Amino acid sequence: MNAAAYVKRFLMADGTGMTFRFPDVSGAMAEVDSALRTAAAAGDEDADLAVRCLDGIWYNISVAWERNGRSMEMTDSKVPLSVESRMALRTAERLLDSNAAEYPQERRERIRELVAGVPDLLKSVTLPRELKEYVARLAREVGTALDEYDLTGDFKLDIAFARLQTSLNIIAATPKDERSQRTVMEFLKSRVVPCVAAAGFALGVFADSATILEYLGYSPAQVESRGQRKSPESFESDTSQAARPSDVLPGTTRSDG
């Protein structure tokens, strides 16, 4: 199930007992929004028409959240879905299906093995404590996405797994002692490469990793000296936490509901 199918399933829910988490619905809708706008900008006429329905779909999600008492878990959208919105989501389904990641059982088991190996990896390498905590949290996020795969499908697992891959690239790009570097590279080779579609992951995108590392507050010199690092609190804004409604829904007010 891709993001568009998940959004549609939620908005057409009729109290059948399925539970939809607000952060999952809003995250899926953000992916739908991006896919349609990108395709429309590239000249896709169907996507261009579908984009005109996005505000209405976002509004429906906002209303559904309100009618469910601003709960993080919802079983019924409690709003009608127009024919136009359904057609827009079908267009998004088509676009997302065309480049969807695939997670058959064998690949999911390999990812589970990867996640299971992360704690031992972090214990065996010399890295800033906050960076270890960040990677460990992303590994747990992937584990949750695997557990919820039957409900959320590829979209949530793809996002979580991509974030974990990036964090492991950050570790590989972080200055460290030679033994730790060998350990990390062996982990990438034995645990990560079998999980990804393109085996070039372990050897590539280090330049991008350095950029992300800098964004997180680590320059190579800072990491090497173990000084001027971000505090643990700075990582708590990670998007693995529940999405704030005002961050994802136009026109809503922030609430801790």
Give the topology, please.
Layout: H1 3-11, E1 20-21, H2 22-41, H3 45-51, H4 54-67, E2 73-74, H5 83-98, H6 105-124, H7 129-147, H8 149-152, H9 154-173, H10 178-192, H11 206-215, H12 220-225, H13 245-248
Antiparallel strand pairs: 1-2
Helix % is 55-70%
Structural class: mainly alpha
From the alpha-carbon coordinates, what is the Rg to the nearest angstrom? 20 Å
Please provide the count of β strands.
2
Gross geometry:
elongated
Q: N-to-C terminal Cα separation, in Å?
A: 28 Å
Our count of helices gives 13
> Approximately how much beta-strand content do the residues carry?
under 5%
Task: Describe the sheet with the most strands.
Answer: 2 strands, antiparallel
- List the strand order in the largest sheet: 1-2
List unreliable stretches of 5+ residues: 197-257
**Helix and strand string, N-terminal first?**
HEHHHEHHHHHHHHH
Mean pLDDT, to the nearest integer, reads 75
What would the keywords be for this entry?
2% strand; two-stranded antiparallel sheet; 13 helices; 257 residues
Can you describe what's shown?
This protein is mostly helical and 257 residues long. It has 13 helices and two strands. The protein has a two-stranded antiparallel sheet with strand order 1-2. Helix 1 (3-11) packs antiparallel against helix 5 (83-98) and helix 2 packs antiparallel against helix 4. 33% of the residues are buried. The model is unreliable at 197-257 (pLDDT under 50).
